Model the fold of this input.
Amino acid sequence: MANPHDDPFDAYLRRLDVRLRGLPAERRSAIQRELLAHLADAAIEQGADPADPQFQRQVITALGPDQALAAQFGQVHGGIAQILRRAAFACGLLGGTLGVLAAPFASGLFGDAGPLTLPLLLLFLTAAVLGLTGVLRLDRQRPGGAWRVAVSVAVLLTGGLQLLYAGAGSLDPLGGMGLLLAGELLLIALVATEPALRLRRIPRAVAIGGALLLVSFVAPFSALPNPLGAYYLFAGGYRYEPYGLLVNRFATLHDGDPSALVTRRLDQLIGQTGLTPLDPHQPLISYTVRGVVSGGLFRTPEVAVGLRFATGETQQVAIPALDTSWGGLTSLDDLTAPHLPLPGLPPADERTPVQLGDPTALPVHPLVADLVRLGGEPMQATRVRWAPNGQALLIRTDSDTMALAPLEPGLWVAPLDGGAPTKLAGAVIDALWSADSRTVVALHWSDARQHQITSYDLATGRAQILGSTDHSGVAVVDAHVYFLDEGVLWRAALAGGAPERLAALPDADAFYGMGALAVAPDGERIAYRCGSDLCLTDVQGRLLTRLALGFAAPQALAASTAFAASTDPNAPSLWSFELTWSPDGQQFALATAATDQRGRPTLRILSRDGEMRARIGLGPDGAVDAPQWLPGGEALLLTTYPAGGRRIIAVTVATCAVADLTRPHWDAFASLRPDGGALLLWNGRGGLWVAPVQAQA
Done:
């Protein structure tokens, strides 16, 4: 008797059953019974023997190839479940393969493990391979597949979370993401087994929605990569309660959760006074963290905090902060630093000729406070300039300082009567007021060498190009703007017209594009940076005086024998170079700073003809901003940056006395009102303050 398993139809059924292995067993049995009944019916109809191999081949030919028939039965009997099952199988294969590839990138976790490095590596590799074999066994409906995949998922997700959120190596994010993604793909293969797919349509949709809800908002599941978290991870703007349960932790992967870091900083400020977010008159007594807004890849996250002061007044502030595996940083860091006396900067007392009164908040439009908030690199005091008539501020912002503000970077005019600021132009290098406060002269970014000089008439709104320069600064005197270009001094009228060529100046070419240019109030004397020295001349380039400052010669002047011989090659390099003429034009101040500890910041007072009248030290180190003369010329104020902080320094010209006017927890920039009666203060945390200035005779 022939073996029934050798029959062509029986082999055909076995091949078909293998292709339909994703269907439940009872459905496959029903399909086989249906096909056997079809064979019997065909035999009766044609009067043939159903066991005849030749007849079976005819029936098989009529039915079609087993792969085509399997596809038809899979579509009819499997539906969407069959498609999901095959997709889950593909996910499982991809997840296992990705786990094998990602395991070697777990360098940070291995580095902390010491002798366990190799066993951990083998553990991840084994888990990934175990997941692969489990997926294959699940697909073939063999026993032992589910537990293999489950073990692999547990190992890969645990290791991936550890690497992604606690690793310290440079490859940890890559390794952690790889292991987490591998674990999630294997998890998809595990949950797409036959029992899970037996759910009806509505319960299945509810299950999928519940799973998405879990991984999006409920810890620890929300630490896994998920679509919502991925969007906020890149775009930022995710708002959450730091101590809540429903937080998408994957969205905070780049920023970390900075709320704990901010609370530690605020704890140090309890009972203290100062400038924003503190108050100069009433101490801070308590605070409440209200939420966090993530920054994503392009901004700094913010912690929303409610502050309460001794008088019961409350204030809502947003504190930029970043807390990641490589370190933590907040906008409060400098405020918490102890305000200690520094060498060469004695604190002001009642005998100091220049006294600074208690500051009061300046009532400006809320958007003005946003314009003076720092979101990136430190901002110079010259980014805010008080109009000569004292009625408006000229604020210059760029992409770094505007990282947190809702306004666009650019040049803004902010009235001091509470009105909204007006944008004049996009981002600029520098901007100055005219003497009558009607015109603003701005230096625009152009190309690598040339920058466009544009004037803006605030009364008419007219803008016109006055010229171009290869330097980073210009000077405005009366109704003219002076600038350097290719070593030549030019003058252009603010009203427009072709610029006038005045004189070629030695060592005033583009190599010193960051150098200073200052013109006396009468427009007749010019002081400028020439190499690492100071040069003084008239507007026709005559009577040139060159003063060696003791800084190392720039590389471009190495061939200049006379200049190189006058400078010690081991001297420090020049960092800050700021020039300001006195109001009467009879003397000018030069503030310089070195790039290292070999040279202290120094203020020089020189006569109109270049005679050195005073040389005054300005502290131990750091850069300096432009000196600001009091109207009578008896004293100067400067913003300096010693020890990485900010100090407001007063210098009395007659006695060369230096005094630090800064108070604890200020960390402030300063801009002198043109009449000398008040000082504008801000610290880059929002808010402006005005302190009265009194100069004693």
Remarks:
- The chain is about 30% helix and 25% strand.
- The first helix runs from residue 8 to 19.
